[in-house]
Specification:
0% strand; single chain; 213 residues; 76% helix
Length: 213
């Protein structure tokens, strides 16, 4: 219990510490602080016997955070691939728990995915292909999350928060002028949604990390 408290405290402190850094220039400390929360989530999942899919999903997310904390299209592509692998891990994690697909989620997420062809894809340039694959993966992940049984509904909420954070990130990167007040506000919001979403997924599948079982 004491170790849980320490790890959650460090994860929460680093997540809060990153908020004012969301719009800052890349740097060693900024990258380290951004990478810390998900690295600690992965450590907690490992220490408490979490599924390998969950652990690797969190690790790939931490690697994605590291890559996206740096500038340049190459780092963005590395981050995109890392998060795509994280979503793929979550797809396998959720798939094993789903009995019946939640059809309204399929319809809604299909609509959201198709809508990106209008407001997102035309603005992604050479990254259009990788972005399309990413949109497909996060849509499938969210559909499976919304199809989870009642006892795992916290993960459903977490996946929705994760999806919302990615939608805001897409708008911030491809549709907003960098450095504006709106872009900075979007950075605060997407980081908050992202951390809360990932934490919810962790807690749903490994409730012992919060001393709940």
């Amino acid at each position: 219990m004491i170790l849980n408290t320490i790890l959650w405290g460090l994860a929460g402190a680093s997540a809060l510490a990153y908020l004012p850094l969301t719009g800052r220039a890349p740097g060693f400390w900024r990258s380290g602080i951004k990478t810390a929360p998900l690295s600690l989530f992965a450590l907690m999942a490992l220490l408490h016997g979490g599924s390998s899919w969950l652990i690797f999903g969190l690790i790939f997310s931490a690697l994605g955070d590291l890559a996206l904390s740096r500038d340049g299209e190459r780092n963005f592509l590395i981050g995109l691939v890392s998060f795509a692998l994280a979503h793929l891990c979550y797809v396998f994690l959720f798939w094993g728990e789903v009995d019946t697909p939640f059809w309204p989620a399929i319809v809604i997420l299909a609509g959201v995915a198709l809508s990106t062809e209008l407001w997102l894809a035309p603005h992604t340039g050479d990254l259009r292909g990788p972005v399309r694959v990413y949109v497909l993966l996060i849509s499938v992940m969210t559909v499976l999350a919304l199809s989870l049984p009642q006892e795992l509904r916290l993960a459903s909420r977490g996946a929705v928060l994760f999806l919302l954070s990615d939608l805001i990130l897409a708008i911030q990167l491809f549709r907003m002028a960098p450095g504006t007040r709106t872009a900075r506000s979007a950075g605060y919001l997407l980081w908050t949604l992202y951390i809360c979403g990932q934490g919810a997924i962790l807690l749903a599948f490994v409730p012992r990390v919060w001393g709940l079982s």
